[in-house]
Design goal:
alpha/beta; eight-stranded mixed beta sheet; four-stranded mixed beta sheet; 43% helix
Length: 364
């Protein structure tokens, strides 16, 4: 049975180890520093949306890596900047009765773009895996995963292209471990390396249904151009004008103004519904005689004074709350009172507080 050597005990590596432990899939989590020491001694605090639990994991420190054997799969779950040093360290590790680790499958479980090329310099069989997982590791010995019901999304295939039995087996184990995993070849060419136990078959043999939302650059094949297809089409002047949002909205406003004018004339009551033309005329008259500018200036003056008073009051209340316990209690009480009034809609009913409070609120 395949054993996975997970290199890197961060959010991606530790969460994968926890899921493999849950499904009884053989693995070893290899890390360094305080993180792996804490997990080895106390277990991993594994937090998910449905449960929080302590998971005891099979661990090993990078200073004393586990013996490798035939059939192991290395999973590279380190930061992109550590790929060079990590692959150099592991490529020449001895495999029991099978040469060196450079002949073992290596999975780059990352979102970086350069890890595969770096790994291919030292490893014969590289499997590119892109993972999307809402996980974080900010506390020693603890990993939080927000994905539910799936842990994360993984797309995996041979690098630079193709599929083989090993890729399909890894995807099957990831699916069993709770990941939404998919085997994806990038083209019809076989995987690199000529001495594989099972060469990569053509794409049609292991075609996996893909989501319609798959990015175009990850598509396994490109459509052939249709002979005689129209690449460029001349757009007429009315069509170009209609593509402008300002023109469409302007026409809507003109239509509404016409409907307003028609309804007002049919109503025949300027007091109840003045016409659009009469409203427009009154607007320009009041702008010309200074009524609207004066009232606008008065409104702006009140708003500025209100904002200044609010800033000063906020500064005073905050200083009071920071400086003393009594100030914090006073601010908390005011906040609770005003929130209660707002939730209960007492401002509208006029039943919040005493008569002078209702009178003050009615002025706002």
């Amino acid at each position: 049975m395949t054993r996975y050597i997970i290199i890197g005990a961060g959010a991606v590596g530790a969460s994968l180890a926890a899921e493999l432990e849950t499904q009884a899939i053989p693995y070893v989590l290899v890390g360094r520093g305080a993180q792996i020491a804490h997990i080895a001694k106390h277990g991993l605090s594994y937090r998910r949306a449905a449960e929080n639990r302590i998971v005891r994991l099979n661990t090993a420190d990078t200073a004393a890596p586990p013996p490798l054997r035939r059939g192991d799969v290395l999973i590279l779950a380190v930061k992109a900047q550590d790929v060079e040093a990590t692959t150099a360290f592991w490529a020449w590790r001895e495999v029991e009765g099978a040469g060196f680790a450079s002949g073992l499958p290596l999975v780059t479980l990352q979102n970086g773009l350069a890890a595969e090329d770096i790994a291919l310099r030292r490893f014969d069989r590289v499997y590119a895996a892109s993972i999307r997982i809402p996980a974080r590791y900010t506390v020693i010995g603890e990993v939080v995963v927000g994905g539910e019901p799936n842990v994360g999304i993984v797309a995996l295939g041979c690098y630079p292209a193709g599929l083989d039995d090993t890729a399909l087996s890894i995807v099957a184990d990831l699916t069993k471990a709770g990941y939404l995993a998919e085997a994806r070849p990038d083209s019809f060419v076989p995987c690199s390396g000529s001495s594989w136990p099972t060469p990569c078959p053509p794409q049609s043999t292991h075609r996996i249904a893909t989501s319609p939302t798959t990015p175009f650059h990850q598509s396994s094949s490109l459509p052939e151009p249709v002979a005689g297809s129209l690449i460029e089409r001349r757009v007429s002047l009315p069509q170009r004008l209609w593509q402008n949002a300002w023109l469409r909205k302007g026409l809507i406003l003109i239509f509404l103004a016409i409907m307003w004018e028609v309804v007002a004339r049919l109503q025949g009551n300027d007091l109840l519904l003045p016409s659009f033309a009469a409203t427009l005329r009154a607007l320009f008259d009041d702008i010309g005689n200074g009524i609207i500018p004066g009232r606008a200036a008065n409104s702006i003056d009140i708003l500025v004074k209100g904002y200044v008073a609010g800033v000063v009051l906020a500064f005073v209340l905050t200083s009071l709350a920071v400086s003393s316990q009594l100030g914090r209690d006073f601010l908390s009480t005011l906040t609770s009172m005003l929130n209660r009034c707002r939730r209960s809609r007492f401002y509208r009913s006029g039943s919040c507080g005493s008569g002078w409070a209702r009178e003050a609120l009615s002025l706002c």
